[in-house]
Amino acid sequence: MGILRKIIYFLLLFLFLLFSAILAISMGAVQIPFLDVVKALCGLSDVVTKAIVVNIRAARVILAIGTGIALSTSGAVVQSIFQNPLAEPYILGISAGSVFGVMVSLLLFPNYPFSNQLLSFLFAIATILTVYRIAGVGGSIQPSTLILAGIAITALFSAVTSYLIYAYFSKNIANILFWTMGGFWQANLVYALAVVFVALACATGMMLFWRQLNAMALGDGFATSVGVDVGRTRFILIMVVSLCVSFAVSFTGIIGFVGLVVPHIARMIGGADHKNLLLFSGLLGAILLLWADTLARTIVYGEEIPVGIITAILGVPFFLYLLVRRRRLC
Amino acid sequence: MPQQKGNPKKNFKIIGIVTVLAILCVASVGYAVLVTNELIIGREKVDVLTVVDDMGRVVKVPQPVTRVVSTAPSNTEILFAVGAGNLIVGVDNYSDYPEQAKNLTKVGDFVGLNVELIYSLKPDVVFAYYGQRVGIERLSELGIPVVTMRPQTIEDVLNEILLIGTICGKRDKAENYVNQLRQRIDAVVNATKDLDESQRPKVYYECWNSPYISAGPGSFINDLIRMAGGKNIAANTSKDYPVLTEEFILYANPEIIITSSMNIDTPEKIMQRQNWQNIDAVKQGKVYSIDDNIISRAGPRIVDGLELVAKLIHPEIFGGNFA
What we know:
By secondary structure, chain A is mostly helical. Chain A has 14 helices and no strands.
């Protein structure tokens, strides 16, 4: 019966995501009626409407969904493998490394397609490997040391990124700053589908480890005692998470608090079992970012604001609520 | 000796001294000329100019000025234009026009000013730009007169040329120069002012491609487009440099797209954008790039910028009219 309830929740959320997607596509600088959206999606409308509905709004919606899945499932995994409910991919330095990679790409190869993604990924991997090395070798890694190393590397990369902005983009500082606050303006169908594909592939990969994740959430000692190779599992998951996050970050910039908050809501709805947790996290993350972006691009007519601002405004009060609630339970 | 009530001779002396002092006082009051952007009174030679700058700060500048620091390219260009280029002892890192500006001592940029270096240059006055708040405050505390510019329209630029010219003792040159500029501006404005709405093409100006940053109300570019007889699609947005959504640009369907040299995307790349093929400007190949330094600097070249934009928007009117 518990399972039945979860299936119903899942179906309801899934339908809500689909409905939200079509509703979000109908909203924008000009309202396009719901039915016309459906028509355009089926290829039955004029060129301009089709370009806007399919290539721009649908692409944004899909990119938001992909990014939501990537950040939220990664957040859930990071929280479990470090047994830290306040952890986020950002803490490991992945986001800062990715953004640094994009800055390097903007400086050195401004005109090559996918150079942002490649450098972003390379620096995310380099960052996380460095952090992993600093924190220990193989299985004897300390979660707290890892997080501290992540924070230190994040600070270093932020400083170097700030220096690059200061030294090379000081004339365009506002433009580059917008980038570091996150947004989906770069969306086109190819990018968006690529992000969704990578996010779904990574999320599936994470889900294959649901047993190990369940064990590791209860502590390294417990996990080891039930036969989980903690060091190896953690290493693999860190690689998957960094791929997932860096790929999204390279298109969207830093979008905070999604990976932190969404897994907690997912636990309330679907429980702590990672089979459900990753599923619900991905779904809820997609819905949250989809609406955050819709807000970001419609709140001021014709203009957009960085979506990272909205996720922070939505996320921080919830985060504080979580803190207070935890304190009361303890 | 009885105390005398007053020695007529001595009294005469005192009266004389007082009179001279009084005359000096009155004279110095008369010499303390108040200069604001809108109002420049008096043509006499003065010891101290009291100036109200664009930030509403009252600044006393001792005369004559022989050493000047400019912390914005626009100020540097104005100084050279009014014949005060030889007084400059330091400029900001971006001052690159005219050619001579490149070889001057660099004192920082919009982000940060090197206050120690500026102080060591012993300037009689610093011409700053709004936004350099910290540097302006530090220099003022050190007793260096800082005149801050915050131009928002072309008219403001003309007033600034007069202000800088007056402070540097080049009042006449500045007035002549401003009159020349005004004639050129009027030539453009008079040619476009009677155009009705249908004759004003819609213009999209792209500062930056990722995200799409344009120029809205309160920006020079908005001013230029309007004066040149166009309609800026971002004219009713919420800020001077708004981030536009792509669909807003597509819906607006601009007839002319102008991008700045600062943008990463060139006109060729803009014309190749996937969803932009249906925009009139792209269909007709009316996508242009202009030197950002000409139209976004609040200096004399803004008038060159106006003429350039006018030529792009209304070639049928301005075809070959400008030198």
